[in-house]
């Protein structure tokens, strides 16, 4: 490859508030994706490129550094900077991983460090280093009872099970309540962990239609006659991926229908504590047929792989415990011990409140930048963006990936033949609000078809 001037390629920087150095990186990624730049092509010296673009040298240096981090280019001493032959590495900004943002005003790593140190000083080493098989220790189950109870009510401890995260508890429910080949009802767009679990355990998933308020009771009754399923999976509060909140009236209608059809309800509830006043849970509305799972990972941190389950009765809790012994064995004693310490002291509630506030601030940023297409929500860790054009969400996700952004297309959440066109944006993985703004502004430019995106408006 000869010099850059012979290629005739010069970055075309799109308009907008996105930092100039990232616009250069975007232009480089687009040129490589479209074939205007090929592996092995040499880029001009940084000083020359700065002169041609009319920017300062530090801007180009920062752009080249970011492009190298993303495996778009590489430099060889004495020879210059060349386009790499491989695929770009991890995205510059992750809008796909649905985790809590760092809580504003709290140093979570420091709290974890001091919490573990204090736990080791106060607790019996034998207890922390031993197996805790089954439903959890009496102390852990008692703490879980308080956490799961609504309006100050505590559940009977013998209905509470402790697990190493929500997925472990969902696995235990599926294994204890269904058999291979059985069908489980869920929303047409549902939690990917359930899809993976059904595939791994050879269960089937059947979609039930929804409207603006959530799953429709009449369609659930029709689906039950068609499939004969006994288990209904619901994620009614800040649903993943649509971020919808099922109103109380619809919850009561579904609870009555589940009772009529004698369905088991699996209520996956990782997000309700991110609302100041969530609607009543199915655990409250239909306690005799609901398995309710609540994890700390989404309202505090994935560091705490601790979740609590409320079963309809002690016998069901024992069946869950048996399934846990056959799969994950137990919740890690050290992490569970720390989680219980934080729940008892009130620190868990303080961290959750800080996460809730930071999540609300990030939701506002997203609404300001992406006003068209967003589902109405002002809380939670994620949001849903509906696409109105012929461009499918998987295609958009590929375009975004080449621009250094990771998003989650509808295909990752879909069961059944009918597929809504849209994507989920997770707002918590970016390290701070400024980085989130950069990512959302870049996404907005793709969606609007602005110069440099080379894509139709959506």
TrEMBL record:
Domain HTH gntR-type: 18-86
Cited Gene3D superfamilies: Aspartate Aminotransferase, domain 1 (3.90.1150.10), Type I PLP-dependent aspartate aminotransferase-like (Major domain) (3.40.640.10), Winged helix-like DNA-binding domain superfamily/Winged helix DNA-binding domain (1.10.10.10)
Pfam families membership: Aminotran_1_2, GntR
Keywords: Aminotransferase, DNA-binding, Pyridoxal phosphate, Transcription, Transcription regulation, Transferase
GO-annotated molecular function: transaminase activity
Family stated for the protein in its record: In the C-terminal section; belongs to the class-I pyridoxal-phosphate-dependent aminotransferase family.
Protein name: PLP-dependent aminotransferase family protein
Organism (species): Mesorhizobium vachelliae
């Amino acid at each position: 490859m000869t010099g850059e001037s012979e290629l005739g390629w010069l970055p075309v920087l799109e308009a907008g508030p996105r930092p100039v150095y990232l616009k250069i990186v975007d232009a480089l990624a687009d040129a490589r994706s479209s074939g205007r730049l090929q592996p092995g092509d040499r880029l001009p010296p940084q000083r020359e490129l700065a002169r041609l673009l009319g920017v300062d040298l530090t801007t180009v240096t920062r752009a080249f550094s970011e492009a190298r981090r993303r495996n778009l280019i590489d430099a060889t001493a004495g020879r210059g900077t060349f386009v790499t032959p491989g695929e770009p590495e991890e995205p510059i900004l992750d809008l796909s991983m649905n985790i809590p943002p760092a809580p504003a005003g709290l140093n979570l790593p420091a709290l974890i460090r001091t919490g573990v140190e204090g736990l080791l000083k106060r607790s019996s080493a034998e207890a922390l280093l031993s197996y805790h098989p089954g439903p959890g220790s009496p102390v852990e189950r008692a703490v879980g009872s308080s956490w799961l109870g609504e309006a100050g009510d505590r559940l009977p401890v013998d209905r509470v099970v402790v697990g190493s995260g929500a997925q472990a508890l969902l696995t235990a429910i599926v294994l204890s309540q269904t058999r291979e080949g059985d069908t489980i009802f869920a929303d047409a767009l549902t939690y990917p962990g359930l899809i993976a679990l059904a595939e791994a355990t050879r269960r089937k998933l059947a979609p039930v239609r929804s409207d603006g308020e959530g799953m429709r009771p009449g369609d659930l009754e029709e689906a039950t006659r068609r499939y004969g399923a006994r288990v209904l999976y619901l994620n009614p509060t800040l649903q993943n991926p649509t971020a919808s909140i099922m109103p109380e009236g619809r919850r009561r209608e579904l609870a009555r229908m589940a009772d009529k059809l004698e369905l088991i309800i699996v209520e996956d509830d990782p997000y309700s504590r991110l609302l100041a006043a969530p609607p009543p849970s199915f655990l409250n509305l239909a306690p005799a047929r609901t398995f309710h799972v609540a994890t700390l990972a989404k309202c505090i941190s994935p560091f705490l792989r601790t979740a609590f389950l409320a079963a309809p009765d002690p016998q069901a809790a024992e069946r869950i415990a048996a399934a846990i012994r056959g799969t994950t064995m137990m919740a890690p004693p050290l992490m569970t011990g720390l989680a219980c310490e934080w729940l008892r002291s009130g620190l868990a509630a303080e961290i959750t409140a800080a996460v809730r506030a930071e999540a609300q601030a990030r939701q506002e940023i997203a609404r300001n930048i992406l006003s068209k297409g967003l589902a109405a929500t002002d809380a939670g860790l994620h949001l849903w963006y509906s696409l109105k054009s012929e461009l499918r969400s998987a295609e958009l996700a590929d375009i975004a990936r080449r621009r250094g952004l990771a998003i989650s297309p509808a295909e990752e959440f879909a069961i059944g033949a009918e597929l809504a066109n849209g994507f989920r944006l997770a707002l918590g993985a970016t390290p701070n609000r400024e980085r989130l703004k950069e990512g959302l502004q870049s996404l907005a430019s793709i969606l609007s078809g602005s110069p440099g995106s080379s894509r139709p408006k959506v």
